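Work package 3, deliverable 3.1, input record:
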Amino acid sequence: MIISIIAAVSKNNVIGRDGKIPWHIPGEQKRFRELTTGKTIIIGRKSFEEIGRPLPDRKTVVLSKTKNYSAENCITVDSFSKALELLENEKEVFIAGGAEVYKAALPYAEYIYLTAIDRCFEGNVYFPDFNKDDFTVIYEQRVEGPIPYTYYTYKRISA
Ligand SMILES: NC(=O)c1ccc[n+]([C@@H]2O[C@H](COP(=O)([O-])OP(=O)(O)OC[C@H]3O[C@@H](n4cnc5c(N)ncnc54)[C@H](OP(=O)(O)O)[C@@H]3O)[C@@H](O)[C@H]2O)c1
């Protein structure tokens, strides 16, 4: 199974502020939609509660030790390893955040789909440090606008 992280990160590495994403940039979430539709996402309980419902047209695995969400195409598991066990027959699984889940997934991630927002934002949740030397950039697309951003795809360099 391919494990792919997908995240949008500000210039100062912020991904969240008080439980929310601190920007709204029209069009910026298009890549998330395109990549994850029809696929499976693993998401932390806090990020899931922020969205408030399973996203349509994809399977959602919520990570939580305290809550148990279930709905059509949505289940909860209480550890990252259980999520991977459950999904072992999937071709590719997307890690949709937040920081805690990104951190758990980083050692296993083969791809990181990172949207780098070209502006600093105040926040209190950060994308975890990762060693860029372990990855090579295989895709880069800058999108101009009032708040420009760049879509990157990092691929892990095989040992
Ligand atoms: N910019 C982006 O791309 C992006 C994407 C997603 C989220 N965000 C932002 O990130 C912030 C939330 O991130 P966060 O790190 O605070 O929370 P989070 O990762 O969304 O959720 C944390 C919760 O998930 C559960 N969890 C996480 N790892 C687990 C594990 N290995 N095993 C079992 N349960 C696990 C725990 O739930 P229990 O407490 O119930 O046990 C934990 O409290 C929000 O501000 C959100 O807007 C940004």
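The two ends are 17 Å apart (CA to CA).
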